[in-house]
Amino acid sequence: MGQQLPSAQTDPDDRKTYGSGSMFATIVGFFASIWRYPLKILDNQFSLVDQADTTKVAQFDASVITTGTTRTFVFPDATTNLVGDATVQTIQNKTLNNTNAITVKDASFFIQDDGDTTKQVRLQASGITTATTRVYTFPDADGTLALTDDLPWTIQFNVYTSLDTATNWATLTNDTAVVYAFTRDSTGAQNALVTWNNIYLAAGSWTASLMHQQGADRGQYQLQLDGTNATGWTVIEGYAAATARNVRTTQTFTVATSKKYSVTLIMATKNAASANYVGSIQFLHFKRTA
């Protein structure tokens, strides 16, 4: 049997009949009833059906909302598409909240060139120690990033305070006639050495510059990388019949593999005319040349 909405909510001039026979509803009255009372519909009883293909159906699901809680979804003032949490979509014109941390897997984060999107950059965090966060602070200047293998590439060694190992080579001698006013002197024992650990050297050709003091009791300087004599290195001669200060000698060597090394100067040999194996250094500098 047909049903009619209450006459108090109808306007006879705006009645529309749905179905057939006595089944009809008054549109104005129907909406008036919605405005007057809250309308609640079970989520599994409310579906949106595509007008062209009624097999395409959308439903809301409120099951994950906290009990006793009403969630409100505010629609943007635009015609747009919903965004899924696991769907492949292109997101545009969005500003991320700058008060929250954002975590992205390195394999999923790319920076593309604005003119050619086939040009991409991706970061790789695999070399970081487990459970460690590394922070990279940018300088307050424009510039270009450089690779560890780029040229030129230089390393300045502090021979006075930044040594990791100093075996029989710990004495600092004040001498106002030398650059920096001090020399680091060994005891004269054979195989006295100084070492700097965790020095990254890129594969290629290098030139070393050593400032030292020559004398009648000085030995010969050998460079070692990870305890092995550096390839191509010829010993730097410390012997001279007369004392010579601020002597700057260059020597070349090659590095086969880009990695961190322990860099050592060792007094393993001496000139036959020298009375001892003493080493006196003021400055050590590496420059990669090829």
How do the helices and strands follow one another from N- to C-terminus?
A: EEHEEEEEEEEEEEEEEEE
CATH class of the domain at 153-288: Mainly Beta
Oligomer: single chain
Radius of gyration: 40 Å
Mean pLDDT: 86
Query: Mind telling me the CATH superfamily name of the domain at 153-288?
Result: Galactose-binding domain-like
Largest sheet entry: 6 strands, antiparallel
Q: Label the overall shape.
A: rod-shaped
Indicate the proportion of strand residues.
Answer: 25-35%
Structural class: mainly beta
How many helices? The count is 1
CATH topology of the domain at 153-288: Jelly Rolls
Q: How much helix, percentage-wise, in residues?
A: under 10%
Number of strands: 18
Uncertain parts: 1-28
* N- to C-terminal distance: 96 Å
How would the blueprint of this fold be written?
Blueprint: E1 15-16, E2 25-26, H1 27-36, E3 47-49, E4 57-59, E5 110-112, E6 120-122, E7 153-157, E8 165-167, E9 171-174, E10 182-185, E11 192-201, E12 204-214, E13 220-225, E14 228-229, E15 236-237, E16 244-255, E17 259-269, E18 280-288
Antiparallel strand pairs: 1-2, 3-4, 5-6, 7-18, 8-11, 9-10, 10-18, 11-17, 12-16, 12-18, 13-14, 13-15, 13-17
Brief digest:
With 290 residues, the chain is mainly β. It has one helix at residues 27-36; strands at 15-16, 25-26, 47-49, 57-59, 110-112, 120-122, 153-157, 165-167, 171-174, 182-185, 192-201, 204-214, 220-225, 228-229, 236-237, 244-255, 259-269, 280-288.
